[in-house]
Amino acid sequence: MDDILEALKDGLDKLLESNQDKLDKLLNDNRDCQDNVELKPPDPKKMGINHAVALTDKYFELEKKLEILKFWLECEKTKIEKQQKFLEDCCKGFMQNYMEQCGAKQLILPNGHKFGLRKSQNGIEIKEEENAIKWCEENLKEACKTEVHLLKIPILAYIAATGCIPTGVEYITGKSKGLSFSIS
């Protein structure tokens, strides 16, 4: 188990380091270009029409390069986020299966972090707030504030006690959410 976690951690570290190295190199190359160019505004009295056109073309060329770099950066960021999400899902599934087999609720990982499983709490989602407010004002006053916002805890307690779901509220069971996890 420790070998698997260590290999997984090493793989994640290498992936993040390689992507950070690419980003650092790009930023350093960009800084080097900026350092070598001394930007002075041209003297309008000495500038001819051809010079002004050339400067305008150069400006638009640099603007295009900047847009390309921004697009590339966003693509790389999206790609890294997808990889991170995939690896998180893989880790979550693996750890969840392993912990269910062992009957453990918490594991301490080799890097000192804790991986814990807990059951998801019941919750609600208020779909039609106006209808829910009207219903709660008539039937469940403790769920309403004077500003007329709904409090989820009293509604959950009411649903648990009576089994009746107020109008405009969708009841979401903890089983439908599955297990949640935390890493600290």
Concise summary:
Helix content is 62%, strand content 12%. The protein has 184 residues and is mainly alpha-helical. The radius of gyration is 29 Å and the shape is flat.
DSSP helix fraction: 55-70%
Rg, please? 29 Å
Q: Helical element count?
A: 5
Element-by-element helix/strand order: HHEEEHHEHE
Distance between the termini: 19 Å
Question: What would your notes on this structure say?
Answer:
The protein is mostly helical and 184 residues long. It folds into two domains: 2-103; 120-183, no CATH class. 62% of the residues lie in helices and 12% in strands. The chain is built from five helices and five strands. The protein has helices spanning 2-36, 49-102, 129-139, 152-162, 174-177, and strands at residues 106-108, 114-119, 123-126, 169-172, 179-183. A three-stranded antiparallel beta sheet has the order 1-2-5. The chain has a two-stranded antiparallel ribbon with strand order 3-4. A hairpin with a 5-residue loop joins strand 1 and strand 2 (114-119). Helix 1 (2-36) packs antiparallel against helix 2. The protein is flat and about 85 Å long. The model has no long low-confidence stretch (mean pLDDT 77).
Reconstruct the topology from this structure.
Blueprint: H1 2-36, H2 49-102, E1 106-108, E2 114-119, E3 123-126, H3 129-139, H4 152-162, E4 169-172, H5 174-177, E5 179-183
Antiparallel strand pairs: 1-2, 2-5, 3-4
